[in-house]
Amino acid sequence: MSVSRPGENEDLADLIVHLARLGQSAGDASLTAAQWTALRYFARANRFSRTPSAFSEFHATTRGTASQTVKSLVALGLLARHSHGSDGRSTLIEVTPDGHAMLEHDPLRALRSVLDALPSEMNHALGQALRHAVADLAQRRAAPMFGTCAECRHCEPGDEASFCHCTQALLSAPDMAALCVDFRPASRG
Ligand code: SF4
Predict the structure, then answer these.
(1) What is the pLDDT of residues 145-157, one digit of tens each?
(2) Residue 96's pLDDT band (boundaries 50, 70, 90)?
(3) Relative to the CA of 182, which ligand 1 atom is closest?
(4) 147 Cα–ligand 1 center, Å
């Protein structure tokens, strides 16, 4: 097994942060990086996770800050609040048609296309390494991890439909591809 050179992982950590900032630095400047992150999150999150508190965990920020970001996007007409649950007290956030139109100008599109252009083995290895690093860091910080059903230990695959043992719900194809706040990686505790 090869060993990292001294300073190599400092460079890597700086590179990852630089790549993230560069990826978010262009596009429609009318939204902040936090607003773009929220818009993207609510477009990708499943029905159990489209709440301001789940977004605060995803964005590693306080509930107050996350609520302010959501509120600003609701005021811009890019997100909408809907009552959720039998008592109607909890709130589910949905991306509006204007929000989906805004996502066509997502600054991350350029970064996605750069990643798409990588040779497939490199792209696959990078994805695996980053997922592994995110899982390790989340565990060290006791932070929740977000992921999708195919790699979740709560998911029981079925021929007709898969079943989630956490939410006790059948999972549709869109559910399977969506981000989930209750995700638990299959290989971890
Ligand atoms: S199987 Fe896992 S990722 Fe999918 S909805 Fe259930 S808890 Fe979330």
Answers:
(1) 888 998 899 999 9
(2) very high
(3) 7
(4) 8
